[in-house]
Design goal:
By secondary structure, this protein is mainly α. It is built from 4 helices and 2 strands. A two-stranded antiparallel sheet has the order 1-2. The protein starts with 6 loop residues before the first strand and ends with a helix. 3% of the residues are buried.
Length: 265
């Protein structure tokens, strides 16, 4: 800070001297030595206290103070220039740091994108493998299901064929039994028909014999009536003979029927 001490009458007042002694200046790089400046100001204040009241001294002091002010202004200007250079340098360094940070951020982002792409590729590969494994498992399961279904179908067809074959065999057996029964029925019917015919013939023959015997008996009776007739209580004897002949005919018929039954069997 640069100022000129105030004068009152024939000299410099005490306050001005104290301000000169305690004057301070901003500290800057590459400026004057602060101790030298303080020493100079102290000497100036003492000089003013001892003989600064004279006008000539006042002029010298004024010129000296003006010189000091100019030096101080130059120092301040240099300090301002240094500060400006430091600011520019700091801005450049800050810009460099910002650019470095941006470059690092770009590299970090690129690395993150690369890692993301790799992770996405790994995920897609894993997903593709899972899809492939799932398709293979589904195909295997479908193949096994088709094979099991085919085996079950073959078993069902075999079982159905076995049942049909058994049914056909039973049908054939039943048809054979029915045919045998029909043959036996026809044989029995034939035997019955033959037996009926034989019985009818036997009955007819027996009836003819009885009729002939009755006719013979009647003729003999008439002959006896025409000739010497025997007593009336002896006449029925021919009928007894006919009655005796009838059991013989019945016995012959009975013997014929078992023979017919044997042929039926």
């Amino acid at each position: 800070m640069c100022f000129l001490p105030a004068t009152t009458g024939g000299g410099v007042d005490r306050d001005s001297i104290e301000r000169v002694r305690s004057a301070t200046f901003p500290v800057a790089r590459r400026g004057y030595d602060k101790r030298e400046v303080d020493r100079f100001l102290t000497s100036l204040a003492e000089w003013l206290e001892t003989g600064g009241a004279d006008q000539s001294r006042n002029d010298v002091i004024r010129r000296e103070l003006e010189r000091v002010g100019e030096e101080t202004g130059r120092i301040l200007t240099e300090a301002h220039d240094v500060a400006e250079r430091l600011r520019v340098q700091a801005e450049r360094e800050a810009e460099g740091m910002i650019e470095g940070a941006q470059t690092q951020a770009e590299r970090t982002r690129a690395e993150a994108d690369r890692i993301h792409a790799e992770a996405q590729g790994v995920a897609e590969t894993a997903a593709q493998k899972l899809r492939t494994d799932a398709d293979a498992y589904a195909t295997q399961t479908r193949t096994e299901a088709d094979r099991d279904a085919e085996q079950a179908l073959r078993k069902a067809r075999a079982e159905a064929k076995r049942i049909i074959d058994e049914a056909s065999a039973r049908k054939q057996d039943m048809e054979a039994v029915i045919a045998d029964l029909e043959a036996r029925r026809d044989e029995v019917l034939g035997s019955l028909e033959r037996l009926s015919t034989e019985l009818a013939g036997t009955a007819t023959e027996h009836a003819q014999k009885i009729a002939e015997r009755a006719k013979d008996t009647a003729a003999k009776a008439r002959e006896d009536e025409d000739g010497a007739s025997p007593p009336s209580d002896e006449a029925p004897e021919p009928e007894d003979e006919a009655a005796e002949d009838e059991p013989a005919e019945d016995e012959q018929q009975t013997q014929t029927m078992p023979a017919a039954k044997g042929s039926e069997k």
